[in-house]
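Dear support,

We are seeing what looks like truncated structure output for some complexes. This example has two components. We would appreciate it if you could run it in full and send us the complete token output so we can diff it against ours.
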Amino acid sequence: MLEKALVGSKKYWAWVFFLGALSIVGGYYYYQQFIYGLGLTGLHRDVTWGLYIGQFTFLVGVAASAVMLVIPYYLHDFKTFGKIVILGEFLAISAVIMCILFIMVDMGQPMRVVNIFLHPTLTAMVFWDTVVLNGYLFINLLVGWVTLGSDRKGIAPPKWIKPWIYLSIPWAISIHTVTAFLYAGIPGRHFWLSAIMAARFLASAFAGGPALLIILALIVRKISKFDAGKEAIQAVGRIVAYAMFANVFFLGLEFFTAFYSGIPGHAHSFLYLYTGLEGHSELVPLMWTSTVFAAISLFMLWVPGIRKNEVLLSLACVMLFISLWIDKGFGLIIGGFVPNPFEEVHTYWPTMPETMITIGVWAIGFLVLTFLYKIAITVREETAGIETEH
Amino acid sequence: MSMDRRQFLKIAGISSVLGLGATAASATHNIWTKGLDPEQADKNKEALIAKRWAMVVDMSKFKTEDDFKKVIDACHLTHNVPDFRNADGSVNKKDEIKWIWEAPYEKAFPGQDNKYMSEHIKDMPFLVACNHCDNPPCVRVCPTKATFKLANGITMQDEHRCIGCRFCMAACPFWSRSFNWRDPHGKNPNGEPFIKNENKEYPTRTKGVVEKCTFCTERLAVGKLPACVEAAPKGGLLFGDLEDPNSEIRKIVTNQYTIRRKPDLGTGPAIYYIVGGSDHA
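Here is the complete output from our reference environment:
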């Protein structure tokens, strides 16, 4: 099926070359970072993780969100998702690839990462995260490829794939739970030391990932004959609304504990992010943008009349995606480091090379996504009208 | 190549081989990891040995700024800790690496100050470094066992195995760890090398790895006290075996009022502080 990615219109190739060019620019800056060291980023002794780890954390959520389509379709036989489920699985594949790349660009000694497997450390959450992420990549490649291959031949997928599909459900939950455990078990970092972290991660993932999927499905429908279906998109929209409500609720719980308890250490990071601390308010505009976008998008998704209008739905999804990206891809990481364990405020802002590397990794991810979607769309266009039973 | 370096590399090498958990009896109550016994590697007769190395810092013995400087310099020169400077000579905070440094009371012991406390007390300098905790979060989170416990209580760092993920830095509640954001073998804007007088007895590091205080494991192995202890004013830094009921530091910790940093986090810091009198610098 791979050959289907090699045939396309001029517009297709223009898009591929655009993404390819961005990846090459990112690669150039990564080379600079590789030679100089991570000092090329805005990171320092006080804020040791930043944009890269933020992207990683956010994208694990996008990857896990495929389960929001897999559960209704495969467990509840919700036939409406018959077409869109492959878009979710392929989105998960590209998201995991981006996660792995973001971890790689964040390593001080990337040539040594194999040490994680040479000296497996069962107490280290990074070890488990590496295991579950690679496993999830494998499962989704297998399931996506086999089901699409069967579609192409107009036959039902083989029976042996079913256990893999069912396995992908708890596995998806596991990748984001373990990612939350990277943060939620560290003593002395009050902002992260929260039992609701994994639940919050999953809620934001199940809102942000499907929101991106709605946008992608609408784009796919515009540029090809592949239509995921109006009803399917609406159903995903409802999932986004419920998950986003849970996410906002969980964030509210964090605020309650931090401020009602009155323990200064629990409130400091929230104060830094939302009001500024000791004269440092760099992240305040971003965090309030996130808050306002969250409120507006939640309202728009909640009201059926607005959600049913696909233009407004996509607008709501874009706002929601931006809101969660700021909250999880940036604020969550930086907030954990400010103030530092000496209660000093040292701020962080990504540098230009760091930003270009980040854009480069996103470009590679979207390049993979483009190829995968191209294959899926072409197969579906060829078999249009043929309905297969899964 | 001197004995010091050989001993260090021996321990580091053995630790790689036995990385999967040595069975040495641990004097510490660490539920996550068993300590590696350096005496397995080290048959040196003069080596200083202990069941649980620990330190008492008596701040009352530090009178002048120079007392602190001597200690910090001794450590940083011994271990080739690079000195990053800006063009105007100030410390380059972005690249900074430090193993031991001074922090004011209110920062070393956050939450212990109050609003009526004089600025003098709030600003009282304390020497801070890795606490070589009983139950160190850095060791628990390290995905490659590049940081690990020795049976004598020391939290070691293997800069040759470290992949530079910096998880230990996020996990350490004492901010005791530093990362090599760039190659430490370069030069400051004023032309001075980051490592001015390289100590050939001790390895330098490469970019992209984490480093920190190791309680001078390499010196203990050849019968020497840690460099900071030697450089401190008399009685300022006491180093010894906390498990030995007759050791000087055990008597102090038993009989005097000492404090530790963030004891409520349960990491079990092994540096105990005697808070100084008012004759302080």
